Amino acid sequence: MGNVRIVTDSTADIPVEVRERLGISMVPLKVLFGEETFQDAITIHSDQFYKKLKASDVLPTTSQPSPLEFSETYERLLAEDQVAPILSIHLSAAMSGTHQSATIAQSMIEQESDITIVDSKSASYGIGIQVVKAAKMAQAGESKERILEEVARLQNDVQLYFLVDSLEYLQKGGRIGRASAMIGSILNIKPILSLDKDGGVYSVDKVRGSKKAMTRIAELLKDAYGDDPVGMVLAYTDNKEPADELAERLKSALNVKEVDYTTVGAVIGVHTGPGTAAVFMYRV
Q1: 241: closest CA among 274, 215, 267?
Q2: Domains of the chain and CATH, by start
Q3: How far apart, in whole angstroms, are the C-alpha atoms of residue 46 and residue 34?
Q4: DSSP string, 19-88
Q5: Using CB atoms within 10 A as the burial measure, which of 38, 137, 259, 272 is most buried?
Q6: Residues 193-212: tens digit of each pLDDT
Q7: pTM, whole model, 2 decimals?
Q8: Residue 7, H or E segment
């Protein structure tokens, strides 16, 4: 039996060089600007997307991959090695029908196969941490069962928080009400956002100003990890400075051993907007 094959979707926000090095297959979601359709991380990349978003009068929308797109990926991998297990890890089912599309695709495969679909219960590099770890273990020859155990552990261990520069995109995307967005903007209220155990967005706390919000995130993560050695991935949209500032605050408060960066892709960026900074932290 060959090594486990790892599949994910574009919302994992894994840099292309990491995907290629680890042999991760990626199925893109789509971003629609009016009549224009783009494949996330394939025909539109982060820098292009945020320029287009700020210049556009139309709020873009997103759509999940079709079951056919997933089944084509699974069939390609099975053609390369028909006995290798496939582990397919995707955007929280609470946010998108992507997980459902992958599950339908699994049922469409006619040949005998070993395909497992996993709800990451996360987004952006919260998925990416799970996928990258799974791919590294797969390359090392670990079994699918052992990889699934580690993915489940990471789902329980990883903490994520994100800050948005403007509440406009959350409001337009239906994540918060118009009145809350208006009051928040006037008072410079910064909601500290995270994902609940089912992968849905919620507000952890609200403070005035970005600096106080970053301090509060450091406090929350210190409460979660104490002095344990941790790694973190900072994610940003069109401006790296907020992520750098957040990283410095966290490095001074916690026992940080690993620091990496990634960009928030187009699909997640539709809902968060420019100027977003996020941290994904895990024990090492």
Answers
A1: 274
A2: 5-28+65-157 (3.40.50.10170), 159-283 (3.30.1180.10)
A3: 18
A4: HHHHT-EEE--EEEETTEEEEBTTTB-HHHHHHHHHH-SS--EEEPPPHHHHHHHHHHHHHH-TTS-EEE
A5: 272
A6: 999 999 988 889 989 889 99
A7: 0.94
A8: strand 5-9
